[in-house]
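Supplementary Methods S3. Complex input for the S-adenosylmethionine-bound model.
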Amino acid sequence: MLKSQIIITADGSKTIHFPEWNESYHSKHGALQEAKHVYIQSGLAYHIEKYASKTINLLEIGFGTGLNAMLSYLFAKEKNININYHSLEKYPLQSSALKELNYTEFFTKESDVFEKLHSTKWELSTEINSSFTLKKIETDLKHFQSESVYDLIYFDAFGPRVQPVLWEKTILQNMYNALKTNGIWVTYSCKGQVKRDLQAIGFHVEKIHGPPGKREMLRATKI
Ligand SMILES: C[S@@+](CC[C@H](N)C(=O)[O-])C[C@H]1O[C@@H](n2cnc3c(N)ncnc32)[C@H](O)[C@@H]1O
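Predicted complex, serialized as structure tokens:
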């Protein structure tokens, strides 16, 4: 088991860091900013603007701290859309680690929702409110397969440097299969090999502006 520590990132939000890997759950340049930029703005907001979608079937790879789920819930509420949120996680976080994070300071009025996202039972679809349903699935991404179900995928595994297997072409092909036509896959990474594999699979791939501290990130559309 790797040792972890809680660190404060540049925007004041905390994240979990693994010194032996020199890898964190989020960018040290701002965990909250990164999540908002990569997944909410470049994924969710982009999808609903492009397709005027009112209901989104969303798959997240790596539930982790639940930050992306929380921000997606807030976005759904603000924009009056429905989200069915599925999230895979191989190593659910201990509640002691969650208590050390400070995300509820950034959405004080909804801190009970953040707790609810974590307390819902795994493998069960749970209504968080009338427009947001969460199903957390405890599994290894390597074993996950699905057919044409999702509109949007947040690919938030640890980076290819430390978890290369999760970025292999067979996994990316599974992600392609899991998406509906016009479905969107986003990630913070902009690794050249990942981009080439996505293109070879049949995605239309864009290198777009990254979050603070990162020049570029990837967005891919199933065409
Ligand atoms: C970069 S963190 C991001 C987590 C989360 N999205 C967040 O904002 O906190 C990567 C996540 O992927 C999970 N993970 C690692 N290997 C996995 C695997 N093989 N299958 C599923 N999840 C995995 C980790 O436990 C961790 O929660």
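The radius of gyration is 16 Å. The pocket of S-adenosylmethionine is lined by residues 25, 35, 62-65, 67-68, 88-91, 140-142, 156-158, 163, 166 (CB under 6 Å).
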